[in-house]
């Protein structure tokens, strides 16, 4: 057992995870901080206001950390002597400012982290010239949705290497003893100056009038030292090497600048900014006390030179805080290497190891303290903005039970600094590779009473908690359980059982609320695929009626199989679960029958002409129109597949008897949907929506390079629609779906993501996994032409491995040493200070593979970590 593995094992009783990268990168512009009457969160608190506004629900910072309740925070401030403000937070455009929605306009990279955060490393690239805030705003404002985004690199500010590389490293000497090292490199051709401000502050828990909290305090008991006292945390000591100037103010709103009612505070949150940038000594407290403090380092770096700033945040008192500093850092780095040597044992290629380790780093750095009490937020604060009736009945008004105050894995801590239910499920797969306990905790969290709605719905995201996401929580739970069982040698049945019971409530909610006609065909509404359909599926249809969704129904079939398999596992220790497993077996069969024959026996979602699955529009007068859009909606039926060994069936006789009775007495179910009664490879049994013939038809289209198969994965929409757009006409409008391989060309769902052509990791991951499951049943007896038209027959295992290789090639170096995800940017492709630092984009161009959308969504793009460990022998992963 490595030292990091030992810390993980101890973390239930020793708080090794108490401090971590739990600061968000953007608190401004979030729903939580929005107290406007009209729900315009982006304009209520802006980037310009952020330095002066004391937040209610969380804190943000550059490369920062906090404790797990975010009482005490640390982050880095920088000033190049040119900007009008300190660089204390990442800059980006709001949804209305970007031509493709919100977008961070910075360069930063998560390079390393252990799961207990005993060692962490991050890089921020800070220009030496004036940061082009206004140019980025102006240029993007002029661009249309059909033009690419104007990025920081496009400004040319990095072209002559006049920038600083700021490496931020953390090493824990103990659970409450953090060593922090900032190493700054001048990459430019001439000498440059930089102000570096390690900042410590308390989250404002005193100004909003909630209870009677004691105001915490920071003061300086000795040169170069800050003493921080907090009622809940106790006393911490902040030691600053070389005894820099210490600056103090309060984490309180500058009511003068923001034109708010007067308060007793004199030294505001932005006081350090005004002191350093504006030279205003009255902005900081001369008594050197407050709730926010900074150590002020003034560096002068020769061309190519580097300097280091060292600070230490510790609960224990240290007489010589920097005596063993370098030794501890060296030891923690070595221990991080030892930990990942174990994790990456099967990954031998150096480039793949680098990609995987940075993927893990991004996953672990993207943890965030997420705080949202809907009742308090709706009703307003005693000392804050008053709530209107309109607001109390508005956004999330039906979710008053929800109370979140936890460390949660975020999709991206700038663009998506809030959880999204189905994203979170995918996050747990790579997280389980390094910290199965945290992955399990995340999955349990969403089923807790203070998250899950009393009616059984899981919360979607803060913009609308009642939105509907694909029900993948059960899939993730089963996958994490399997991974954990393989790692530990035994399964965590308590975890599995706890989540299973709550997910049965969620399943019932789906059946009661989203199967309106009670025919096992599901409408679902918005299902996380944003603009995939002809219409906005979360809004009323222009034709009236509803859409019977191929994907919504397929997700539910998958959900039923997941719950069935979980119940069979639990039946190993409690026979009662055999009957429950039989219930989900039966429900799957009826969903599958509806997909195959139609819920009313007249129509189905399968089109015999195209040999593909489509959504179906049903109007109020019961007219039926097939929406012939060739998208991943028609591929998602692949995901509903389960393969069970005869050995398992022998241990669950009650379940086996029920399954046999159903198939003998409901022969149409046996005939149309399953090979359950025909044992396959190694005497396995299969349940799926697709029998052999339909599976072949779907795969031929999916593996066609003129349709779904791209050089770097499976597209979300067939390339067929480039020349053949699908158009649906009503009396008032035409609705068109065409192949768009890059960024979205409409504002549907904010316009910052696109499912009409690009490559998305989560869907590709599920395709690869499903092919492996089919192979587990068919073995080498089933082959398919890959690519379609090539004349090359492959097994499903070989196809799965080939698709995985295409997908991981997005970030891997090709034969010319170039990464497709970097596109045509020569700086990213060739510069030694850029080319091996990875960005994990939200999605990728459907033709050339360059990265699009948010740039740090290791959330589900972090699935690449699992793919890089995929056994070449084809064993299920």
UniProtKB/TrEMBL annotation:
<dbReference type="GO" id="GO:0004573">
    <property type="term" value="F:Glc3Man9GlcNAc2 oligosaccharide glucosidase activity"/>
</dbReference>
<dbReference type="GO" id="GO:0009311">
    <property type="term" value="P:oligosaccharide metabolic process"/>
</dbReference>
<dbReference type="Pfam" id="PF22422">
    <property type="entry name" value="MGH1-like_GH"/>
</dbReference>
<dbReference type="InterPro" id="IPR012341">
    <property type="entry name" value="6hp_glycosidase-like_sf"/>
</dbReference>
<dbReference type="InterPro" id="IPR004888">
    <property type="entry name" value="Glycoside_hydrolase_63"/>
</dbReference>
<dbReference type="InterPro" id="IPR054491">
    <property type="entry name" value="MGH1-like_GH"/>
</dbReference>
<feature type="domain" description="Mannosylglycerate hydrolase MGH1-like glycoside hydrolase">
    <location>
        <begin position="690"/>
        <end position="858"/>
    </location>
</feature>
<protein>
    <submittedName>
        <fullName>Glucosidase</fullName>
    </submittedName>
</protein>
<feature type="domain" description="Mannosylglycerate hydrolase MGH1-like glycoside hydrolase">
    <location>
        <begin position="416"/>
        <end position="519"/>
    </location>
</feature>
<dbReference type="InterPro" id="IPR008928">
    <property type="entry name" value="6-hairpin_glycosidase_sf"/>
</dbReference>
